[in-house]
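A note from the maintainers: we've had questions about how concatenated examples are separated. There is no special marker in the raw files; a new sequence line simply starts the next protein. For clarity in this README we add a label.
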Amino acid sequence: MAAETLAFQAEVSKLLDIVARSLYSEREIFLRELISNASDACDKLRYEAITRPELTAEDAEFRIVLRPDAKAKVLEISDNGIGMSRDELVENLGTIARSGTAAFVDRLADEGGESPSLIGQFGVGFYSAFMVADEVRVTSRRAGEMQGWCWASDGQGAFTVEEAEDAPARGTTIRLKLRKDAKEFLEPERLAAIVRRYSDHVALPVVLIEDGGAERVLNTASALWTRPKSEITEEQYTEFYHHVGHGFDTPWLVMHNKAEGRIEYTSLLFVPSARPFNLFDPARRAGVKLYVRRIFITDDCEGLVPGWLRFLQGVVDSEDLPLNISRETLQDNPVIARIGKALVKRVLAELKKKAEKAPEDYVVFWDNFGGVLKEGLYEAGDQRESLLPLVRFRSTEVEGQTSLADYVSRMKEGQDAIFYITGEDAEALARSPQVEGFRARGVEVLLMADPIDDFWIQAVGAFEDKPFRSVTRGDIDLSALGAKAEGKDAAKEDEAKTTEDAPIDGLIAAFRLALADTVKDVRRSERLTDSSVCLVADDSDFDMHLERMLKQHKQLDTTSKRILEVNPDHALIRALAGKVAEGASADLVADAAELLLDQARLAEGEPVRDVTAFGRRLAKVMERGLGAA
């Protein structure tokens, strides 16, 4: 059969172009990535052989072999794992079959080729081989199949696939034709040093074939999580994290624990210090692998780690599950449920320690994963008591982040609720018109800018018997929270007297008439100090931001009418009130009412309903102001 030439997926071509042009200072990471892939292939076959022992009957000892050939300038990395069929070679090596590909390519391009750390994070470690090789040849035979296959490419946009008579009996051999400037990776001691640094934790031997055929095992070849913690260095933990998490950042938190008693298992879990690329993938999968007595079972065990802890990376090794357990029945297994519950408890306890003992360090975690952790407040009712003390917020009264407990400790006398506002950007929320009256009275408002905030608040309801209250609701009595700041009152003392004489009630009545079809009501506002108008939700309706989100996601067909509040102390409102008292035309009042309503909508981040009409009204008002009409 003749070789078949195929084109790389577009994103792969972009990636290879970046790799080819960028000679990273840490090019040795290619070996770590290829050894890691080989280890995974052996793990997969070990699991398959539980039910199909014939797959490994002739070769039951798994290993990874490095074979440098200085004369030919070739380095081979071989494994006797699961191997790949023709279709698997095309799919696994010709595409990046994971979400976030475009984001990865963009980030790598933005880095200008200076950060090798991005390669592993996006699950494209195989392509790092092109950092050191002019040509990559992969021969593979899938366990249990007769035909072997060869994949080859020079990284220039295409690859070939053909039948291979020289494929290994089982597994994969990667043959790298090294560049002239990569000869160092043919030196046995250089290879040994790289393996000791990056792959010592790999739980099967990494063997170097030296001149004359002598074999040397380069790594410890035992599962890191089975070793006593006292014997493991920080560097070894970090490299193992790189292995399981496919990242290059330093773990923010390491949790290594052996549970004994009714259920026995060992867990080695990591919290990253940087967001994984797929953190917000709809699948919400954690990067935790399940082993049974050191044998890999799956990296997709649904009941092991909840979606709201999906930032976790690591392994869990159980002594109580049967080796032949089906992946399909794992999530219904009571042992998995008990292990999962214990893992959640331990992780939350460790996060609590960090939050209390290293609050500045905890800020790093919260900025990365706070939005994910808050999903647990909505989903896991039994964990809310543990989660609520961990939650942090931006606020109108303090710099940085604050906890709910600290907020409650600062509540004003007479304040019986925790006030908050939800939206898409904390900075914009801090400038929202609805916040003005609270700020003027020194009442703190929490700024919630994560999409989950609108949902968990409805589920939780209160903290320490203090209910959560949105400042965009129309039923808040600000007078019960005290007077505005003295400076503000003094500055507006004269304005207040004028306001008392202004026919505000007449203006409100005129606005109600003009906006009868578009708003639920028009009324005076106690919450505004600087803005002329704002929109608020009636008690019986959805919070405004929640309603917008539901409508955007096709979960809601209609939009509730809002209440338009007007600021009786604002110069524009007083002037309009005076015009109404003097008998202003209905058209002028209607135009002003519609323009102010559109202004309130824009302040909420909502579009103007009728852009053409908005422009016409604005032009008319400007004409009157300039004396042109």
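[label: protein 2]
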Amino acid sequence: MERRDFLHKLSHAAASPFVIPPFVNDIRFANPSSVLNNTAQRGNIVVLIKLNGGNDGLNTVVPLDQYQKLTEARPHVILPENKIIQLGDHDLGLHPELTGFKSLYDENRFKIIQNVGYASPDFSHFRSMDIWETGANSNQYLTSGWMGRYIENLHPEFPQAFPNLDYPHPLSIEIGNPSLLFTGQNSFTSYIASDPENFEEIINEFDNQYGNDQKGIKLDYIQLVSKQSNAYGEVVRNAYSNGSNYKSYSNSNLGQQFSIVSKLIGGGLNTRIYMVELGGFDTHDTQVDQSDHTKGDHALLMKDLNDSVLAFMQNMDAIGRSDDVLLMTYSEFGRTIVSNGSFGTDHGSAAPMFIFGNKIEPGTLGENPFIPENVSWQDNLEAEFDYRQIYASVMSQWLTTKSDTETSVLGRDFTELPIIQGRYQDNDGDGVSNINDLEPFTSPGAIVNLDGVAIFTLPSDNYVIQSQRPSCGGKTDGYIRVQAQDTSHEYTVYISQLDQTYTLNAANNHTIDLTELEGNTYLVQITIAGKTDYHQFFEIGVTDPEPLRAKSSVNYTRQRFTANLSGSDVYHLEVNGYKSIITTPSLDIALKTGLNRIKISTPKECQGIVEESIFISEQVKFFPNPVQENLHIVIPGNDKKIQLQLFSKDGALIFQRQEIIPFSRTIKVDMSNLSQGIYLVKLIGDSVNKGIKVKKQ
């Protein structure tokens, strides 16, 4: 992993000699390719609902045409037929607690996909959930989640380049604990948000430089993710504070997770993928109440799921965002056809998945589960649909229209299922739904307007805009260079602050240099002859130099002065009268004993001067301590004389005098006439500035 800048903050290219992108365009473009094209504006949202433990699909969506066989196979958990909510097609019914699902079904906002699973199912909770979250075959072991790969596939520069101007909000959020689902091949791709109201900064801002060894790479990544979490934490917290819920949620864990998601969406967060989870579906016993099968653990789970989803959709209706959301459930497996003697069911295979949303193809997909005659505990439901067909369909029809995304994420092509209504899909992948697309067959990669009509454009890096700061305030030696990479066009460049028009063409190698500029922010407008709809605007600063800054420290033991400098590429350094020129921002200077004077400046006087005066004292020795009569003080170095001061412990000056230092470098202080107590001896010379504490007995 190469180290990159973490926060790419927009500075409008103020005096920055790098390629800069246009900050505004007078044509409004549709979002090409992906719902994750940016998070600076609203777009499609997916909420994944993870049902931990293995949901009993046969008691959630009941195949009424198989009811007699179900009664014989699972007498301990069968729901009473007169309590099952009738759906009216495919001889299907819902669990009695799913009244909200029924209303969404009647509103054409609920889709049931029957018999979803995978070949050779694994009945271990952990292994099967790993399969579902990685998108693997049952005999394939992957270490990254399909959603993590999806995000990395669309954003190979994640996480180093995030957040930034186009992606100020997290790409995905998990409410709760991190999962394998969002674990990418290179990094973890989701933001964890358990309690946005109480987010605090993870670390103080710092920017350490680490080595390129394995330890350094890991430390660098930890620092990167921590700083990213701080930046995302602020926008998430603000959105949560700004959001509110029209319809209240239950106090259940799932209800509160959905409450967080709907407040974040309502508060203006443009995150595209959320995940919530509900546990407790491993209902080996007490799945139903022995005396009333409509009650029990599974009924409580169904009610929690029903109420949370319904409240969420109603809240999205209230804020006008229900057209933008799609909800999808998944669980690691279903339950057995046969019930057990503990009024529960055991680990099974296929089960239904649920999709909710205003733009889905509603109704039921797939045949009713088939219950064999004389069913035994070994019998299981056959999978009609591979779970990855649903993933591929959601990616292609709702999340992205990039044709190779599903294959690169899931490893191979899967036959898509009708999840989203055709009029809301985007057949040509230009970011405009078919219903609004006036040109539904534009070429791949074409840039279109909001009507799906292809428009002329050029790559964002077609222009190199460079600037040079003036040397100091009031001077007019700044400049701007404008250069076009594509030389097949003739460009007109207008600088509004100068009220001047220039041409980029073959005669000037498609390059102009504007010199003798004073400090200012300049607006650059570029047009192309014959392309009436093409306008590009750039804002670039030609500003005064930054002030000289030095972050310094002194190590008195090693007698070293270190500093990190900023503000220039060249520095003038003066240490104790010796002058030099340096071109590195880091200083490490040896200090002499005594007074050191350090002066740092730049070739531009308006940037200021940094001056330091540092005294490095010789280390004196003294004995005895405690003392009764004479205190002996050994003074190293070359000082000829020294000022000696004696103070009481209260700071009162007892005496001061100048001492001539003898050849032995040891002076004697008579303390025999002093009363018992603590005294401070202060020694001041050319190379000594020390205080010592002495006890008189």
